[in-house]
Design brief:
heterodimer; A: 487 residues; mainly alpha; 1% strand; B: alpha+beta; Penicillin-binding protein 2a (Domain 2); Beta-lactamase; 5-stranded mixed β-sheet; 5-stranded antiparallel β-sheet; 23 helices; binds zinc ion
């Protein structure tokens, strides 16, 4: 009993309040999205709002139960839980379709009689626990690149198993662990490089359809190479303060650029290769500078230059060979390269119309016609935020975002007040996972992210995801509550 | 401690999170407050995505006679939210239904246990597939029933009530197919069998979409941005088949009152000129509202009219197989064209002869007279030509060779590169099969499997395969995959048979003599020299009557296989059908009206429904 008493005082009530607020608002939105004047029965089992109500009650019960479990269990059993999860993930792939049926093209559910669940949901939690345990070992610290290999493997194994289940969306969530890695000492350049890679990819793909001059190369490659050279110049001039070398670089670029333009008058050349040539020459230039003039710190820029150049020239290939056709279309629609008002574009377009039609104040609870007329697809799962936007307008949707923001900030605060590295790392995992879901889901609904089907935490319809997020959060609350018990 | 050094990274992470959330709030601000595109419609304008169905492709025969075309059918739908002040009585009168039916149907639609997709905002199907005549009264008074709509669909109509199995039918798309192909949505129509199924992608065309705006009450206010995003439907491709509809019609007429099938192929091209099966049914039966009822009736008919016997019926080929036997035995060196064997008629052993003729017989006469002992001896001489070897190895190797050469006539496997819907494989028994049956590699010899020599025993072939084998003989050594769609790429699917050209003339001559002085002389056609082979295959009941062949003898234009189940002699029941079909195709009409009448009116199975 003494433990219960201590929990009562040490439990982080602010987080609980945000959690309950989000769950309740989510339920009201599901109610709004599936509301039908013909069948006003809210608690009817046949209706999604009724079902979600039951899910919510059970989730609360589950959360309460998790608070009663000894906090040491999670640390102690972290690897066991992780191992079981990997087995379940693998089993889902090879299981016969009577146990693991194909649902909408993905093969990620396990069905045992009336009970069905998605091992991928569990994988987020158990990977977070396993990482927390591994990284909190007293002899582990991220110091060099090599230290990233084991924790990278912890993430990569469940990631690839989930990709094999054709649940790319759920797999991408594992990228969010990078934020936690960063907090635990990973070089921030890796995050910057990722952002840089995404920018290059988008540029190359978006402008790969814009030819320059008389089909002599594409604008995409030219822009990407321009950015790489600009970064070199910026790095040399402002960060290393080697102004002379930076100006030589600029001169070289202008000279070769001008010369090729002149040549072009008589002989048509491909400017993509000119740009490639300039970038490669610049890489050689910095290598020589480094070697002979002993100017420090150019290795990194040479590596980044070569790496990103290779990446740019293979981006087209990656785009067509690695991504599936429907994924390609989603990205093309997002980048305005293709008009597809009835297919992939339709969802996002309808979603924007629904949100846009909400205006400042919204149409009022249960008055959203767009969502109710069922024009918005997946309106109570992945596109649930539309209902908020339509019925409660700008103020309502902003309020929801602000609550999420407050919750995330609270989680960071909780993380930093932990004495145990295990607890802190786990807290960062929770914050990162929730943030990633929020960013991708709402970004998709607002038309600034490609369509990736992952749910909005605590909001979207569905027992599996609500339970998953509840467990994720309540384990953290339990760990946090233990901070006073130790004394 | 590491913890302290890294604590400022919390601030960086907090900033990343905050920046993204601020960006999203700004984005919300843009689309909800600034952009007028959405605000204009802010007073609950909504879209209605209306599917535009393309007309399905038409189907023609080889001479461009229209076989299959579209007729409109009408569905009555309603949207609950838009129905008001409904005069139920006059609606019932217009639709020619009674009030009890109306109430029953309405409660069915609104019952979510039976109709889980029900929504009061979306169109619900009230009655489907009404004809133009049914729809006329309601069309004029539709304005009196707000919330009710008419949706046009296309159904199939057939110029001639024939070729049901070849053409196939369309029906509502199944749940499984919807999951496999996202093109379909619930309630769409798609090809279910036959040509309609095989060429579904070409025939269906592409659906279009019309985006309409409507107001809060659901009333349609017009096109969204003047139809900028509308997609007009793309009509399905028209198909030209290889069928000759006159030949097809004659074939079906001649098979009346019998159980059996006919396949006719143009040897030079592999084009199927006629493919008939009996009993059959009128393709119009599987159209429209009566489809499922009629389908069920056909399904439970004991004579199995839904089965396409031409491609799915598997028979022992019997004596017709002797033609192939003659070729393969020569090729393998078991016999030459001069080989003679003695025949003791019915007293012959181990295989009896069912005919009376002189002895010894030559190869030509053996084909002409269908001499069983000759082909038994030839078969034995071929597969046992090198003796047995240890563990029968040499014998079995020769048997394998025999199997391969027989199969090269298109037997024993489906035509996988063809567009024919649902074929049976047939069967040429393999060495493995006999090793298993006789429990060891030494447990069997030519004598054990002697029935194979005369096309009985385990050998099975479909009428399609037999007609195709005749094409090989007609072409002296190759066939083109039999197919139903007129199209040049099909002509490149040439399959050489593993018998050299020089062995064919003798078989040609034997088959020609079948008409001149042999079993089919009664079916000879004036002015055209034909080659053929009768077959009378023993079964549990009455014998199956077979006839296969091609015509004319020089430069053959048509190869035909005829099978009449449980009829009796091939020469009596199958040969005249062959002869009449050849006449129709080669002369353009049948002049032997009496014979045609007689054959058409012959009933060999009284259970086959008169049509
Ligand atoms: Zn004989």
């Amino acid at each position: 009993m003494s433990r219960n008493v201590s929990i009562k005082y040490s439990l982080d009530r602010t987080t609980i309040i945000f959690y309950v607020l989000l769950v309740v608002m989510g339920w009201l939105s599901i109610y709004g999205a599936s509301y039908d004047f013909d069948q006003p029965g809210i608690f009817s089992w046949d209706q999604r709002a009724g079902k979600q109500f039951v899910w919510i009650l059970t989730a609360f019960g589950l959360g309460g139960m998790l608070l009663l479990v000894d906090y040491r269990v999670y640390n102690f059993f972290a690897y066991v839980i992780y191992g079981i999860t990997l087995l379940l993930l693998a089993f889902t792939i090879v299981a016969p379709s009577s146990i693991a049926p194909d649902i909408k093209g993905s093969h990620s559910w396990l069905v045992f009689g009336p009970i069905s669940f998605q091992p991928a949901e569990l994988a987020k939690i158990s990977t977070a626990l396993a990482l927390s345990k591994f990284m909190s070992a007293y002899n582990y610290r991220i110091r060099t690149w090599k230290d990233l290999i084991p924790i990278g493997l912890f993430v990569f194994v469940p990631f690839s198993l989930i990709v094999l289940q054709k649940e790319t969306g759920s797999a991408l969530v594992f990228i969010s662990f990078l934020l936690m890695f960063y907090r635990e000492g990973m070089n921030g350049i890796i995050l910057l490089l990722m952002v840089f890679a995404i920018i290059l990819f988008v540029l190359v793909i978006r402008f790969s359809i814009v030819p320059i001059l008389d089909n002599q190369g594409t604008l995409g490659i030219l822009l990407a190479m321009g950015i790489i050279l600009a970064i070199q110049f910026f790095y040399a001039y402002f960060i290393c303060k080697n102004k002379k070398e930076a100006l030589y670089l600029l001169g070289g670029i202008v000279f070769i650029g001008g010369a090729s333009l002149l040549t072009n008058i008589w002989y048509k050349i491909n400017f993509n290769y000119v740009a490639l040539g300039i970038v490669l020459l610049s890489a050689i230039y910095w290598t020589i500078t480094e070697l002979f003039f002993r100017l420090k710190n150019y290795w990194l820029i040479v590596l980044i230059t070569i790496g990103s150049t290779l990446f740019c020239f293979s981006a087209d290939y990656l785009f067509e060979k690695v991504l599936e056709p429907h994924q390609q279309i989603r990205i093309k629609v997002l980048l305005n390269m293709e008009d597809d008002p009835t297919g992939a574009g339709y969802n996002v377009n309808q979603s924007k119309i629904a949100i846009g039609s909400g205006g400042f104040l919204g149409k009022g609870f249960l008055n959203g016609t767009q969502t109710k007329l069922k024009y918005v697809p997946e309106q109570d799962t992945d596109f649930i935020f539309c209902t908020v936007g339509e019925e409660h307008g700008f103020w309502g949707s902003t309020l929801v975002l602000v609550i999420y923001w407050l919750l995330l900030m609270r989680l960071l605060k909780i993380a930093e007040r932990q004495r145990e590295a295990f607890n802190r790392i786990y807290a960062y995992c929770v914050a990162s996972i929730l943030f990633f879901h929020l960013m991708v889901n709402i970004g998709m609904v607002l038309g600034i992210m490609p369509v990736i089907g992952i749910p909005l935490p605590f909001f979207s319809y569905g027992g599996s995801s609500l339970w998953g997020f509840t467990i994720l959060l309540f384990i953290l609350l339990r760990l946090d509550a233990s901070r006073l018990e130790r004394i | 401690m590491i913890n302290d050094e890294l604590q400022n990274r919390r601030t960086v992470i907090a900033i990343i999170m905050s920046v993204i959330i601020v960006i999203y709030i700004l984005r919300l601000f843009t689309i909800q407050i600034i952009e007028t595109k959405y605000k204009e419609g802010a007073d609950s304008n909504a879209f209605l995505k209306k599917t535009q169905y393309p007309p399905r492709g038409l189907i023609y025969d080889r001479k461009h006679n229209l076989l299959v075309y579209n007729k409109p059918a009408y569905d009555i739908t309603f949207i609950t939210r838009e129905v008001h002040d409904l005069d139920t009585m006059s609606l019932c009168r217009a639709l020619n239904i009674d009030k009890a039916y109306f109430i029953k149907r309405m409660s069915e639609i609104k019952d979510r246990r039976r109709n889980p997709g029900y929504s009061s905002y979306t169109p619900q199907l009230f009655m489907n597939q009404l004809s133009s005549a049914d729809i006329a009264p309601i069309q004029q008074s539709l304005y009196k029933f707000p919330g009710f709509y008419i949706q046009i669909r296309t159904l199939r109509e057939y110029t001639y009530p024939i070729a049901a199995h070849v053409l196939g039918s369309i029906g509502e798309v199944s749940q499984r197919r919807i999951e496999k192909d996202p093109y379909y949505t619930m309630g769409d129509y798609c090809g279910r069998d036959g040509i309609e199924y095989t060429y579904e992608k070409q025939l269906r065309g592409e659906k279009g979409v019309e985006i309409l705006l409507r107001d809060a009450k659901g009333r349609i206010k017009g096109k969204y941005e003047n139809g900028k995003d509308d997609i007009s439907p793309k009509a399905g491709e028209n198909l030209t088949l290889t069928l000759d509809i006159n030949l097809q019609r004659l074939a079906e007429t001649l098979l009346r009152g019998k159980v059996g099938s006919v396949v006719a192929i143009e040897p030079k091209t592999g084009e199927i000129l006629a493919m008939a099966t009996s009993p059959t049914f009128d393709p119009n039966l599987l159209v429209g509202r009566q489809r499922s009822k009629n389908y069920y009736e056909l399904l439970k008919d004991p004579t199995k009219p839904l089965m396409n016997r031409a491609t799915q019926g598997q028979y022992s080929p019997g004596s017709s197989f002797k033609t192939l036997q003659a070729l393969v035995c020569q090729q393998m060196g078991g016999i030459t064209e001069h080989t003679m064997y003695a025949c003791n008629g019915p007293q012959s052993s181990p295989v009896k002869c069912t005919h009376h003729h002189g002895s010894p017989v030559s190869l030509v006469n053996a084909i002409e007279q269908s001499c069983n002992p000759y082909f038994w001896n030839a078969f034995k001489a071929t597969i046992e030509k090198d003796g047995y070897g240890t563990k029968n190895a040499i014998f079995r190797k020769n048997y394998d060779e025999w199997v391969e050469r027989i199969k090269s006539f298109g037997l024993g496997e489906k035509f996988t590169d063809s567009d024919i819907y649902e074929q049976a494989r047939g069967y040429i028994p393999t060495q493995k099969f006999y090793n298993k049956v006789y429990k060891s590699v030494t447990g069997w010899r030519a004598l054990t499997i002697r029935s194979n020599s005369i096309g009985q025993g385990e050998i099975m072939a479909t009428p399609l395969q037999l007609a195709n084998a005749m094409c090989v003989i007609a072409n002296t050594g190759y066939y083109i995959t039999p197919h139903l769609l007129k199209n040049d790429t099909m002509l490149q699917k040439v399959h050489r048979c593993e018998v050299e050209k020089k062995y064919f003339p003798i078989v040609y001559e034997g088959m020609w003599k079948v008409f001149e002085s042999g079993t089919a002389r009664a079916s000879k056609l004036e002015g055209i020299e034909m080659c053929g082979k009768t077959g009378t295959v023993q079964t549990h009941g009455k014998d199956h009557a077979f006839f296969v062949g091609f015509a004319p003898k020089d430069n053959p234009k048509i190869a035909i296989a005829v099978i009449v189940e449980n009829a009796g002699f091939g020469s009596t029941y199958a040969a005249p059908i062959f002869s009449l079909l050849a006449e129709q195709y080669l002369k353009g009409k049948v002049e032997r009206n009496e014979l045609q009448e007689k054959v058409s009116n012959t009933v060999t199975n009284s259970n086959v429904k008169k049509r």
